[in-house]
Amino acid sequence: MLKAVENLPVVDFATKAYRTQPFPILADYARQWRVARSTRGVEIFDYDLCRASIVDSRLGTGHPKLMEVLGLPDGSALDYKRKSISFYNRGETRRKLRRPIVRLLGEGASEEFRQDIRRIVSQAIDAVAIDRPVDLIAEFCDRIPSSLYCKWVNAPESDWKFVAKTSHVVQQVHTRDSSRTDDIVEGFEKLLSYIDERIESRRGDLGDDLISDLIRETHAGNLTHDEVRTWLVKLAEANTDNSSHQIAIAVIELASRPDVWDRLAKDPSLAPAAIREVMRFHPRSISTSREALVDMDMAGYAVPAGTPVFANFGAAHWNSRRYPKPEWFNIDRPVRPLHLNFGGGVFSCVGRFVVTIEVEETVAMLAKEFPGLRLEKANFDHSPMFTSVTDLIATLKPN
Ligand code: HEM
């Protein structure tokens, strides 16, 4: 006999303890319950159930409900959202929309961005003062993904601040806080106009960049003009905010451990293993959203169609049955089990390869150039959805 979801244990993510140190709390929840409920919906804490749920065809996208929670008014922002990949459940339209992007940002294609990324990281290092405390979020973590985006859309690199700022604004959709809705709408409107200009200026003069490749997809009949526009805004939305926070998390977690930083400085080939462990131990994505498409059973509970469901990666990553001593930051862990920072299946993050390269290159270059990097101020805030770095001040070359 299935139990009603109202009988699930209730968890609270609004406490100060959770906001500062969520992972031991989530690990503790996961020891007690495979699923629970919070004010936003059903929470899955079990590693295996999280993995199964993100590819479960009975669970669809949680984005339409998110827009309702925010009260996004009719207009160009909501129109864009409705047309974007995030609104589509499994099926031919989702497959058709993802196919070109998965190819253009796939593992091999992303490798081809590595040289550009190295150049961007090196320019960012050249631009910051190295002998006094600097704000690495503003000057560094934001700059790297947004400069790459500028290259993708054939924009002057000086646009990076606009790209970074708008991404931070529109990603506030995930706060589920309707007091942010006006700013979010304005952010999307600015991005839509920006992308229209970029497409217009590139349409008759195609070159070797992502925007040109996407326009070529319209010639091949794989995407419409409107779909290209929507994709470019979606990439701007998802790119800088997530990437910047994940770069900052990596710098803090690695540079605050002198033995690990020293190993990285001496052997940059350790960067991929180090970044994997950062993404397990302190992921940017603490959860991803789904919605039950049908009445379904989950760990002995009857979950009605329409219920928001969250796969809680933070809890899964600190599960001692899957990761022995999860509280131990250990860059020598085996590759498997895989971390879930980028979700999975047909909803998986399309930027996962490129951002992983960005984090690897940033950390490898910083450790090599600045083995004595000193963190002056580093603070986090955690929501049920994300880890955010609120302060990252460092002196790159302390005397
Ligand atoms: C470390 C940085 C990032 C993290 C942690 C991250 C995480 C995620 C997660 C968890 C999802 C949802 C997956 C699911 O529900 O199964 C997602 C989706 C997505 N991400 Fe990322 N992401 C990052 C960077 C990026 C970048 C750099 C881009 C673009 C260049 C990007 C583009 C997208 C898109 C377009 C989707 C929606 C995919 C779909 O619905 O088919 N992300 N990301």
Largest sheet: 5 strands, mixed
How many DSSP E strands? 11
What helical percentage do the residues reach?
40-55%
Strand order of the largest sheet: 2-3-9-6-4
CATH superfamily: Cytochrome P450
Q: Can you tell me the CATH architecture?
A: Orthogonal Bundle
- The shape is globular
The CATH topology is given as: Cytochrome p450
Q: Any low-confidence stretches, pLDDT <50, length ≥5?
A: none
Hetero compounds? protoporphyrin IX containing FE
Please give the radius of gyration in angstroms. Answer: 21 Å
How many helical elements?
18
**SSE string, helices as H and strands as E:** EHHEEHEHHHHHEHHHHHHHHEEEEHHEE
CATH class: Mainly Alpha
Question: How many separate domains make up the residues?
Answer: 1
Beta-sheet strand percentage?
A: 5-15%
How far is the first residue's CA from the last residue's CA? Answer: 67 Å
Based on helices, strands and strand pairing, what is the structural class? alpha+beta
**What's the average pLDDT?**
97
Describe this structure in words.
The chain has 399 residues and is of the alpha+beta class. Strand 10 and strand 11 (387-395) form a beta hairpin. It has one domain: Cytochrome p450 (Orthogonal Bundle), CATH 1.10.630. It has helices spanning 16-20, 22-32, 47-54, 63-70, 76-83, 92-104, 107-111, 114-127, 136-141, 143-152, 160-170, 181-203, 210-219, 225-255, 258-266, 271-281, 313-317, 352-369, and strands spanning 3-4, 35-38, 41-44, 59-61, 134-135, 287-292, 296-298, 301-303, 308-312, 374-382, 387-395. It contains 18 helices and 11 strands. The model has no long low-confidence stretch (mean pLDDT 97). The strands form 3 sheets. Strands 2-3-9-6-4 form a 5-stranded mixed β-sheet, sandwiched between helices. Residues 54, 85-86, 98, 234-235, 238-239, 242-243, 246, 284-285, 288, 341-344, 347-351, 354-355 line the site of protoporphyrin IX containing FE.
